Amino acid sequence: MQSLKYVIAICFGLSAALMLGGNARADSSDILSSCETLLREMRVAGENVAVPPRGYPCWYFMSGIQDVITIGDSTTNRSMLQVCAPADSTLLQLIRIFVLYAQQNPTRLNLPAGRLAMMALWQAYPCNYR
C-alpha cells in the first residue's frame, strides 16, 4: 500500500515535470519555487484566483494532488492515500501546507515533488481510523 502511494504521487510529479521543461521528474525545489511565486504574486478576488505564469506548475501539480487525495474506498469510507483533509479544504490551503513543509525540511528537497507533497499532507491531515 505504501508503494502505491509513492507511485501515484510520483506520477503527478512527472506531469508537473512536463510543464517545467521536460525534466525526468518534478523537482521539489522547482515546485517549491513555483508555489512561493504563486503565493507571493497571485491575485484573489472573491473565489477567483489569478495565477501568475510562473505559478502554473505549482497550481496544476497541486491540483492533481488535491484530486488524488480524495480517492477512497467507498465501502469503508477510508482514504486510500491516508490523507484525511477536511472536505472543504482549498487548493490554496494545500499549497501553503506544501510550502511550509518544504521550507521547514530543506534536506528533503532532493525527493520527488509528489513524495514531498504527500509527506506534507500526511503530517497535516493524518487519518485516525479506529
* Helix residue percentage: 40-55%
Give me the secondary-structure category: mainly alpha
CA radius of gyration is 14 Å
How much of the sequence lies in strands comes to: 5-15%
CA distance, first residue to last residue: 18 Å
Given as residue ranges, the uncertain stretches (5+ residues, pLDDT < 50) are: 16-24
Total strand segments: 4
H/E order of the elements?
HHEEHEEHH
> What topology, given as strand order, has the largest sheet?
1-2
What number is the mean pLDDT? 83
Count of DSSP H/I helices: 5
Overall body shape: globular
Number of domains: 1
Written account of the structure:
- The protein is mainly α and 130 residues long.
- It has one domain.
- It is built from 5 helices and 4 strands; from the N terminus they run H-H-E-E-H-E-E-H-H.
- Strand 3 (72-73) and strand 4 form a beta hairpin.
